[in-house]
């Protein structure tokens, strides 16, 4: 399985090169699907979501499709994901995203899809790849068919937790002082990455790609 977990997407050459290496071909020969579902419940200006798409466009992909798994039935979104080389899950509300990954049926087929495709995450899209989304600051949402939001389980594609936006003043729970304390209550490692950093995973090999700041808690 190949993953590229980012805080803010394709924002620098190091992260862009990491994605190109995972693809094994030029961007103009690759198809990308952008999944904006996590952003649906976020209020206000979506400049950050537009920036994420613009950064993809600048790389010259053969095609960029936008597929909201909460808005389409499986028979419509599945073939569009199958046509892609990169599945990019956007930022937004972590709990909303994992809810729809499960409710849509994507969770069941995603491991098979990723045998030949790259999973890329931005912020919330990166956090759901972990075993737990405990570190998310997203507001938990109430869903009638669940009675309440039931769990904090992620997809467990990686054996560590991801905390994007490391040391950002906009995210108090992403500061080193907070993470140092909460790490005492968490068994697995925590990779804290800022907006200029990504985590590249090929099978079980983990590599941090950065032009910024990052730190690992509970590594050893």
UniProtKB/TrEMBL annotation:
Q: Could you give a single Gene Ontology term from the biological process aspect?
A: proteolysis
PANTHER family registered for this protein in UniProt: ALPHA-ASPARTYL DIPEPTIDASE, PROTEASE S51 ALPHA-ASPARTYL DIPEPTIDASE
Which keywords describe this protein according to UniProt? Hydrolase, Protease, Serine protease
Q: What is a GO molecular function of this protein?
A: serine-type peptidase activity
Tagged with keyword NAD: no
Question: Which residue spans adopt a coiled-coil conformation according to this UniProt entry?
Answer: none
Where does the source fall among the domains of life? Bacteria
Q: Which Gene3D superfamilies match?
A: 3.40.50.880
Q: What InterPro entries does its record include?
A: Class_I_gatase-like (IPR029062), Peptidase_S51 (IPR005320)
Q: Which family does it belong to?
A: Belongs to the peptidase S51 family.
- In Swiss-Prot or TrEMBL terms, this protein is called Peptidase S51
The species is: Candidatus Curtissbacteria bacterium RIFOXYA1_FULL_41_14
């Amino acid at each position: 399985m190949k993953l590229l977990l980012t805080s803010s997407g394709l924002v620098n050459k190091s992260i862009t090169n990491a994605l190109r290496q995972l693809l094994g071909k030029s961007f103009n020969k690759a198809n990308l699907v952008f999944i904006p579902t996590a952003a649906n419940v976020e209020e206000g200006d979506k400049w950050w979501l537009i920036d994420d798409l613009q950064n993809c466009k600048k790389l010259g992909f053969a095609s960029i499709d936008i597929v909201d798994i909460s808005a389409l039935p499986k028979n419509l979104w599945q073939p569009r994901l199958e046509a892609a080389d990169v599945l990019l899950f956007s930022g937004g509300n972590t709990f909303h995203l994992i809810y729809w990954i499960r409710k849509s049926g994507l969770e069941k087929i995603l491991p098979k899809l990723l045998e030949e495709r790259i999973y890329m995450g931005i912020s919330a899209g990166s956090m759901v790849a972990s075993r737990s989304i405990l570190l998310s600051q997203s507001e938990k949402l109430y869903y009638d068919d669940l009675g309440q939001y039931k769990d904090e389980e992620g997809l467990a594609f990686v054996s560590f937790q991801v905390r994007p936006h490391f040391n950002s003043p906009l995210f108090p729970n992403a500061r080193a002082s907070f993470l140092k304390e909460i790490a005492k209550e968490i068994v697995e490692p925590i990779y804290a990455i800022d907006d200029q950093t990504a985590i590249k995973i090929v099978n079980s090999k983990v590599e941090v790609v950065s032009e910024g700041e990052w730190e690992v808690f509970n590594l050893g």
